[in-house]
Amino acid sequence: MKEYFAFQWHITDECDQRCKHCYIFSENNCKHLDAMTWEQIQETFYNCMDFCEVYGRLPYFYITGGDPILHPDFWRLLALLKEHDISFAILGNPFHLTDEVCMRLKGYGCRKYQLSLDGMRETHDWFRKPGSFDCTLEKIGCINRAGIRSVVMTTVSGANISEVPDIIDTVVKAGADVYAFARYCPTSGEKDTGMTPQDYRQLLDICYQKYQKYEAEGCKTCFNKKDHLWTLYEYEKGIFKIPEDAQDGMIYGGCNCGNCHMTILPTGDIYACRRVQNSKVGNVFSDRIANVWICRMEAYRDYSKFEKCAKCELLPYCRGCPAVASGKDGNFYAADPQCWKEV
Questions:
Q1: Domain that holds residue 174
Q2: For the chain, which end, N or C, has fewer CB atoms within 10 Å of the first or last residue's CB respectively?
Q3: What PROSITE patterns would the database entry show (predicted)?
């Protein structure tokens, strides 16, 4: 059975928010907004399909931006994906969603629509824009009514870590299908997420107890433990156990960078991970992705280089978040700043 390969495809930088933690706008140095032409979109799509054919993978596209729905050829792209029976999800804003738009998305085969909540009302609207919090909660209903899985994601930092438990309650009440959080990756102007390892472990403990309570009550929301430090947390609690038949040198989980994921920007630039600022490995308009994968992406698969994780028994399963480590000092293989394990 073929495995999926995920392409996080940013088709445009255009967006009607200016989020303070956005990679495009947070450093206030974006001189212009990029977007692919229809010809470039087609070229990118067939380059991705060529890659999947060469390596025997099934493509899965996360169409995003900016806000992808603002691209003039957005619906044309979805028609192309439907024509080839390709699975996809949308990572976007809530502002242009209506029942009619969501039904149209469903008709083209959209499986998931991911929205963001980065705090309770005052904090979220400070991060994004006034009214965004209420609009996001409202549009969860539009997504659900269309039969698309509604996903809510939180980017956690020292600015909002104390609000995450309340965000969980709010998301459950709104009826979201999936909730997850990941950590903020510092940009070049910052070097710290504002959380100590102990702060973050305490958050995981609080969230774990809350998840257990909701699951016991039959809550419909699925809690996706997206951050790989969940593996360390569950290992310490005896929930996760290293399989007895695990083979030395094999990678079974953890960060997907260099494994089953890559990012494509509106400029055509290929990144090993969008959250790793210095991870450009090629360009779809000048490079064959299949060649980039076997050559330049190899630099992100040298697991022996992890300065801390290589000494840990959880190397094949965890590795924390190299993007957060890279955001701190530019070193992909540095120790995760929020990892509390001593090795």
A1: 100-226
A2: N
A3: RADICAL_SAM
Residue at 8 is within a domain: yes
> Could you give the CA distance from residue 338 to residue 200 in angstroms, rounded to a whole number?
7
Helical pair 74-83 and 38-55, crossing angle rounded to 10 deg? 30
Tell me which residue has tokens 């992909």: 332
Of 76, 56, 60, the residue nearest 68 (C-alpha): 76
State the Cα–Cα distance between residues 47 and 89, nearest whole angstrom: 19
Question: What pTM value is reported for the model?
Answer: 0.93
The total number of structural domains that make up the chain: 2
3 vs 228: CA distance, rounded Å: 20
For residue 242, which amino acid is it?
I
Residues 104, 134 within the same domain: yes
Co-location of 70 and 49 in the same domain: yes
For residue 161, give the amino acid letter: I
- Evaluate whether residue 57 is within a structural domain: yes
Q: Are 303 and 271 in contact (CB under 8 A)?
A: no
Q: Give CA–CA dist 291/268, Å, rounded.
A: 15
**Domain membership flag for residue 192:** yes
Read off the tokens for 293. Answer: 């994968």
